[in-house]
Amino acid sequence: MEETLPLSLSRVHKPLVFINRLHMLLHFTALCFLVYYRLCFFFQDPKTRGTPLLPWFLVFASEIILSFIWILDQAFRWHPTSRTVFPERLPKDEKLPPIDVFICTADPTKEPTLDVMNTVLSAMALDYPPQKLHVYVSDDGGSPVTLNAMKKAMQFASWWLPFCIRYRIKCRCPKAYFSASENHDGDFAGSIEFLADKKMIKEKYEAFQQDIKRVKEEQEILVSSGDHPPIVEVIQDNNSGEIEQVKLPLLVYVSREKKRSYPHHFKAGALNVLYRISAVISNAPFILVLDCDMFCNDPASARQALCFHLDPKISPSLAFVQFPQKYHNISKNDIYDSQHRSAYKVMWQGMDGLKGPVLSGTGFYMRRESLYGNYKIKDTDLELQLYVGTSNKFIKSLEQNWRTPDSVSVGHTLPEEEILLLASCDYEIGTKWGAEVGFLYGTVCEDVHTGFMLNCNGWNSVLCDPPNPQFLGNSTTNLNDLLVQGIRWYSGLLDIGLSRFCPLIYGPLRMSLPQTLCYAQLTYFPLYCLPLWCFAIVPQLCLLDGIPLYPKVSDPFFFIFVFIFLSALTKHLVEVLSTGGTIRKWIVEQRIWMMTSITSHLYGCLDAVLKKFGLRKASFVPTNKVEDDEQTMLYQMDKYDFRTSNMFLVPMVTLLIINLSCFIGGIYRVFSVGDWEKMFIQLFLPPYIIVLNYPIFEGIAIRKDVGRIYPSLALLVTSNIFASIITSMLYSLLRKV
Ligand SMILES: O=c1ccn([C@@H]2O[C@H](COP(=O)(O)OP(=O)(O)O[C@H]3O[C@H](CO)[C@@H](O)[C@H](O)[C@H]3O)[C@@H](O)[C@H]2O)c(=O)[nH]1
Ligand SMILES: [Mn+2]
What we know:
Layout: E1 8-12, H1 14-42, H2 53-74, E2 81-85, E3 99-105, H3 113-124, E4 133-139, H4 144-166, H5 174-179, H6 192-218, E5 231-234, E6 250-255, H7 266-281, E7 286-291, E8 295-296, H8 301-309, E9 318-322, H9 341-352, E10 364-367, H10 381-388, H11 392-399, H12 417-422, H13 446-456, E11 460-463, E12 471-472, H14 479-498, H15 503-506, H16 513-524, H17 529-545, H18 556-578, H19 583-612, H20 629-636, H21 646-673, H22 676-692, H23 694-701, H24 713-736
Parallel strand pairs: 3-4, 3-7, 4-6, 9-11
Antiparallel strand pairs: 1-2, 5-6, 7-10, 8-12, 9-10
Bound molecules: uridine-5'-diphosphate-glucose and manganese (II) ion (MN).
Uridine-5'-diphosphate-glucose binds next to strand 3, helix 7 and helix 14.
Binding site for UDP-alpha-D-glucose: 110-111, 140
Subcellular location: Endomembrane system
Active site: 140, 447
């Protein structure tokens, strides 16, 4: 009986499907009317139409781009699905497969070593047989600080793991456990023995913290963005813990070789090195990938993921199980939408109902075999060498099942030539690494690209989103980090859209239409910058000059525009509310959409285009993960922290100036001429933009705290000059053409 029970169930949200599709139909019909209205203009007699061609064309083009992205967006709402897992129905521990965990870190100055070690410890403490768990850390900084800290972490693990196991601790990231205001210590909460052990472990953790501090002080932090040799070391398990002797998972430090003259392909390159090295050490069939700032908040994720990977109905074509990214540092109103609500609460569910969610960089259990590319067992050794490189051990691993890693010499820098070969920077030259094998290169959004290609090659994925967050990361909670990270993402995403893997061309023959549209949305939504810039300038300038761009109030088409506007806003509001958000969250998301579109989307697109023409090199600046108390406080108080570069502030301030001045000028003109009926929508637009972006105005004119927009001469002069140039140039152009 037990064996026939399914390991997981999936459920389609039927009422949601109905509502979504009805909304699509209505909204789409209205869009068709809009296009009809705009097109009619071009067939009117130029003398009687009363509006110049250029502004009409610009606004129409913007509406077309918005509608295009809207259509792509609907694919996520076509077939939303969610899943439930039953890990208690899994086979016994002896029958479970081994798992390799990959953790990437790059820069100990931006990624606090203590936090990285907390991630490592939380992964080692997963609820899984320890002899079947192997944790590999990739240190792209090649820093002795990380290596030495790992040795300390291993010592602490020999206390921490037995404690977690004995008292069935739920949160096994020590930092999170000790800083939580309340812990669900379960049955043991009142036990004297537990309390004594907890006190003792807390002291050990404090000592561990001090150790890390000392390690940092002793070794001056040299982040070698330059050259360093490969180092692979298995960390010694002293097993000094006294609570109970338990076996600890294997812990391996890997710093791949770097030379300035060789491309290192950022995180994807680091993951591929781990992928090869782990293949010759443990070769586990499943791999958990974690960013260094994303700890395991619940030890159950491995078993939950196996509910899919071990399900004979799902597993043959299953590449990975993705858990949504969730964060521990989100405030109530989340003024930067740091949690990416729409992505992880709406879009991924939608993709799960198609061919599966896109790979999201961290928090996923990948099947090793799915990254082998198109290799076939019958390939000769020579062919395989051209494919995966010259390491015979690695080639052997392709055909071999997993093995227990007792053959490696623990505690030493691994002497094995072969392992160093696999971590060397020229290993991949002339092979298919990054093109067909492993994590793919060519964009800094390696996750989306790899996930897309897996889906194209026939692999599926699933989303696992249990009520208790399995992983918790650190999200960007200040404007500067948010926008800098945004540039990288949007540039990386558009890279894919502009490459030969453009989803709209590469996808349709390889996957269903809705899934193709989802990927197209992910790669093209940075194009939001074009319509948003247009809507922030063109209707406003036309208002100033009395050029109507929208139907007048008495025109039946007026209601089409009102309907589209309200329908989009209402749909968004309903989604925010139904995914646990508030009306304030809805406003915040609208605002952040505008702010990021005119800044990081724009710069991201420019970056991608320049890269396409070979005028810029790809770069991956890791996000800053050092917590700044002042910044955190501003975020918690819902105050934007405008301490960012003028590169971001100038566009915001410029557009604010244009909107304010055009509104004042426009009102004055409308009152003197009395054509408010014709200009109604254009009169509405600037105050809507200003009110929604009130924090920018407040930041310049009202706030006095550190996070305000400091009215430096450079900022004010540049913004005013930009505003004047845009106004004067466009103003005359829009009237004439
Ligand atoms: O050359 C590099 C650069 C970065 N990293 C690591 O990559 C991870 C992600 O970098 P982070 O700075 O945290 O970037 P985020 O923007 O927060 O990451 C998101 O976006 C990335 C793609 O741009 C994905 O890879 C991540 O999984 C996803 O969480 C971190 O663990 C870094 O240590 C490296 O190992 N080598
Ligand atoms: Mn990150």
